[in-house]
Structures are given as structure tokens and as C-alpha cells.
Amino acid sequence: MVTNRSILRRVDESGVFVLLVRLFLGGLFVWMGMSKIAHPDAFLKQVHLYEMLPESPAYFLNATALFLPWLEVVCGVALILGIATRGAALAVGGMLCVFTPAILLRALAIRAAEGTPFMEISFDCGCGSGVVIIWTKLLKNSGLALLSLVVLLARSRRFTLAMLLDRRRAVARYCRRCGFPVGSASSPFFCSSCSKPEPVADATSPVYGASNQPAPDASL
Ligand SMILES: [Zn+2]
Asked: For 140-154, how does the pLDDT look when each residue is reduced to its tens digit (9 = 90+)?
């Protein structure tokens, strides 16, 4: 368990994995939002087809069709730049948690009405990619929701605009080495883990020793 945790921490500290996830998820949401903004009437029709919102006043449907694509674009840009990253990941995950069950319900309604086998049901779900096989769409959306969870849980702010702006501060909010929140660490620039004194070249050190041999008296 200790090994798993330290591997996860090292992956988080490097910031590379979450950067790739941010770029992918952010790029996808910018693209999906832009394709809806380019065809507002088509998207309004899609929102209509879900029958989730009241028909009258028409204001609800129109406002949703107008607002939602921009929310996607703003969240996507925030993820790419790395500003308000967790808020953007939460919003993206929240949207996926609303869209995905809605798509499932619509597919189930089609199956009930037309008797189409579930695996063969396809329609334009309104995501911006046209007509799709619905079970693959549900799978993809679940994967995207997991990726938004990765961004939400990642602690490192490396490769983000937030971290870049943080460099101008006299006291860092994010550790200058690993990008984790500094919190109440003793050092003004490093988190409590990174502000530990540099390990001296000491093969007997139980934590930093270069040797892979377990300590001879390791007790569980
Ligand atoms: Zn650190």
C-alpha cells in the first residue's frame, strides 16, 4: 500500500498525466461547445428532444440552449489554461453526470417505443458529433467523467496558469517543486514534503537510501 501511494503521489507530483488529461478534456469541451454555438437552432432542437425541461415558458429551453455551450467552452478553456482547474473539472463532471443519464433515458424510451435492440440504437445526442451508436456514447461519457474526477482529485498545479501566476507571490500557495498546495508548511515556497532537508548521500537512510534493499530490521 505504501508503494502504491508513493507511486500515485509521484505521478501527481510530476503533473504530466493531469496536464494531458486537462488538454484532452478541455480541448474536447471547447470543440463540443463551439460546434453547438455554430448551430444554435440545431442544438435547441436537441435540447427539446430530451423532454427534460418544461416546454413553457420557452425561456427555459432557450436559455439552456444558449447558456450550456458557452459553459462548455469556458470550462474547456479553464482546463486547458489551468485556472480554476478544480471548479472547471467539477462543472464538466457535473454536466456529464446530467447528460449521460439523459441520453440513457432517451435510448430506453426509443427501445420501448420502437423495439430496437439497445446495442443498435443510434441518434444525434446533441453532443456535437452527429448521429452516434448510443452504447458507445454512454461508455465514452463514463470515461470522460472518470477523467474529470482525475483532474478534480489531482493536487499538483504544475503546468497551470495558476501556478505561473503564483510565482510572482512572495509566499507561494503552490509548492514550487511539486505544485501541491503549500498550506501551513514552514517554508514559504515548498510543501511540507518538499521542504524536508535534502537527503545526504547515506545508503542507510530508510526513506531516501539509494539502495533497493529493505532495511534489515524492518518491522511491520
Ligand atoms: Zn512539494
From this structure: 999 999 999 999 999
